[in-house]
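Worked example

This section walks through a single chain of length 141. The input is the sequence exactly as stored; nothing has been trimmed or padded.
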Amino acid sequence: MDPALVTLAGAAGTALVQAMTRDSWEAVKARFSTIFSRHAEVDPAELERELEASEQRLRSPSGPLEPAVEDERRRWATLLAAFLAQHAEAAPELQDFVHDVRQLAARDSFNVVQQITAGRDSYTAGRDQHLFPGVDDDDER
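Given that input, the structure is written out below as tokens.
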């Protein structure tokens, strides 16, 4: 098998598995199913069950998450390598799929920065608060 197709299968398997736990999963799943169904004679309901089972194994792993992710990634990479061996014409679509899923993943990730400015009469909520009269309060007496 062409090494480029093996690499593509690995990248597509990784992208697919990473998408399973993101908000964009339903859109990714629909696109993947379309690509797979267009090139292979596959029962859409069976493919849906396979994808849902993989998602469930990632959302509720029986042990640590990392081995479950790696198992699913390997499983889908193997399935996709077999798919590409039979349907090499699907490679451009699968490349676009990987690119688009990576773009979606980048949009799902973001950083949050909080900046807090406390003034004279403001208090920061925490576990314990101790209030003492301030310098200005003594001047008013």
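What to look for: Residues 120 and 136 are 10 Å apart (CA to CA).
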